[in-house]
Amino acid sequence: GGTPDLGTAGAGRAALATDASTAGGNPAGMTRLDESQMTGGAQVLLPQIKFDVNEDSFGGGNGGNAGYLTPAATLYYVHNLSPDFKLGVAAGSYFGLGLEYDDDWAGRYYFQEGQFLTFGLNPVAAYRINKYLSVGGGVSVVVSNYEAKTAVRNLEPGSGDGRLEFDANDTGYGANLGLLIEPRVGTRFGITYRSKVDLEYEDKPDLKNIGPLLQTALDVTGLEGSKVKLDMEIPQAVLVSAYHEVADKLALMGNVGWQDWSGFGNID
């Protein structure tokens, strides 16, 4: 979030290469910058997330607004070593999500509150092979947090809900590559590939306000105090962008992309 290319809605992101944010969009584009440069951005998100519930079929309310105020920011820096060789770094959140329903939400026994946060640090380098072609790439270091809270139905009649809480962190690694092709002045094509990043969360869930019957069952089965391991995958992606100047103050930009979301969210 908070990238400078929000003004173009991300169109032509891998081919634009007009400021230091290209360290994140397409590292090969850093060769177009004549001097060292730093740029960044910030934004605030306030989502409205509501769940419609049939009161005749489910016990509990609609949970209210599950969204909450979330800040986001990015920072980019490109260092000019020579006209043809650049170093850079991109820092910011890959993506994140968070939900927080009211305590009486109808789906509280499946999910009640949680968040998935990521922060990426991406050092990159770029080299201009000739006036038509530049290449770039780097490594991705992703620090993440996964937190989930779920209500637990106690077995005693009239008793309140218990609660299960899971909270764990992990760091994953990946790579990204980029090409920038300039067949003529004012026309550019960018191609980027970002590898998948595997994350693994392991924690001993905390159980609170558990009734005596359920506590006895946990003790007998030996589940009390056991660890839970969850795997998460940030998907790989390919992006092809085009940029063409029609006139001094008019340019056309566009993207064609592919992202492999088939493995995301498949928690064992």
Structural class: mainly beta
Number of strands: 13
The largest β sheet comes out as: 11 strands, antiparallel
The count of helical stretches stands at 3
Low-confidence stretches: none
Straight-line N-to-C gap: 29 Å
The proportion of residues in beta strands is over 45%
Please state the average pLDDT score: 90
Q: Order of SSEs, N→C?
A: HHEEEEEEEEEEHEEE
Binned, the helix content reads: under 10%
The outline comes out as: elongated
CA-based gyration radius: 24 Å
Descriptive keywords:
268 residues, mainly beta, eleven-stranded antiparallel beta sheet, two-stranded antiparallel ribbon, 3 helices, 7% helix, elongated
Summarize the structure.
The protein is mostly beta strands and 268 residues long.
What this model shows, in words?
The chain is built from 3 helices and 13 strands; from the N terminus they run H-H-E-E-E-E-E-E-E-E-E-E-H-E-E-E. It has helices spanning 13-16, 22-25, 212-221, and strands at residues 37-45, 70-80, 85-92, 96-100, 113-130, 133-152, 162-184, 187-194, 197-203, 206-208, 228-234, 237-247, 250-259. Strands 1, 2, 3, 4, 5, 6, 7, 8, 10, 12 and 13 form an 11-stranded antiparallel β-sheet that branches. The radius of gyration is 24 Å and the shape is elongated. The model has no long low-confidence stretch (mean pLDDT 90).
